[in-house]
Amino acid sequence: MKVLIVGGGGREHAIAWAVAKSPRVDKIYAAPGNAGIAEVAECEDISVMDAEKLVAFAKEKEVDFVIVAPDDPLAAGVADAFLDAGIKTFGPRANAAIIEASKAFSKDLMKKYDIPSAAYEVFEDYDKAAAYLDTIKAPYVLKADGLALGKGVLICQTKDEALEGLKNIMVDKQFGDAGDKVVIEEFMTGREVSVLCYSDGKTVKPMTSAQDHKRAGDGDTGLNTGGMGTFSPSPFYTPEVQKFCEENIYQRTIDAMRQEGREFKGVLFCGLMLTPDGPKVLEFNARFGDPEAQVVIPRMKNDIIDVMEACADGTLDQIELEFEDNAAVCVMLASDGYPVSYKKGFEISGLDSFKDKEGYYVFHSGTKFADGKVVTNGGRVLGVTALGKDLKEARANAYEATELISFDNKYMRHDIGKAIDEA
Question: What's the predicted TM-score (pTM) here?
Answer without folding.
Answer: 0.92
